């Protein structure tokens, strides 16, 4: 859901994007699976078509090619760092990314990504990836009612907007209606 929600932002899909931005979705399980029907339904309610989406399993090559890796939960971030220890300083849960970004401040208009990520990463400890925490984890609605998927989609939508606002300044983030 998060990658689709990023894709709706003008900064990712628009001609006036401040940087060359691409977003890829990957997970821990084997790839090739369709999105659950509930996800397709909830995203369709937001004008996003995930009916053709197929899952992709995270790989060392995908991690190496990524400037930033955001997981929905600590276990996702933990698995990425186990897969590629060099990715530690650029791998966060989406909630942690937003929380830390609100503390260190938005990326400056002329600030390169790497120095800003260093500021964001400063003071983190690897043991913080152990376990789970409502402070860091977006709940997975899998197997639950459709309303649970809607709650998760709303939460992810807000988090995605926050991530984009922290990363891409000075332009205002525009989310098309829908």
Walk me through what this model shows:
Helix 3 (37-45) crosses helix 8 and helix 6 (94-104) runs parallel beside helix 8 (146-167). This protein has helices at 2-7, 10-13, 37-45, 60-64, 74-83, 94-104, 113-121, 146-167, and strands at residues 69-71, 91-93. It has one domain: 3-Layer(aba) Sandwich (Rossmann fold), CATH 3.40.50. With 178 residues, the protein is mainly alpha-helical.
Characteristics:
single chain; 178 residues; mainly alpha; Rossmann fold; 8 helices
Summary of the model, kept short:
Helix content is 43%, strand content 3%.
Figure out the total of helices: 8
- Enumerate the spans where pLDDT stays under 50 for 5 or more consecutive residues: 170-178
Kindly report the average pLDDT value. Answer: 88
CATH topology: Rossmann fold
**Which CATH architecture would you pick?**
3-Layer(aba) Sandwich
Order of helices and strands: HHHHEHEHHH
Q: Numbering strands along the chain, what is their spatial order in the largest sheet?
A: 1-2
Strand content: under 5%
Number of structural units classed as domains: 1
Helix proportion: 40-55%
Over all CA atoms, what is the radius of gyration? 16 Å
Q: Please give the alpha-carbon distance between the first and last residues.
A: 15 Å
Q: Give the name of the CATH superfamily.
A: Response regulator
How would you classify the quaternary structure? single chain
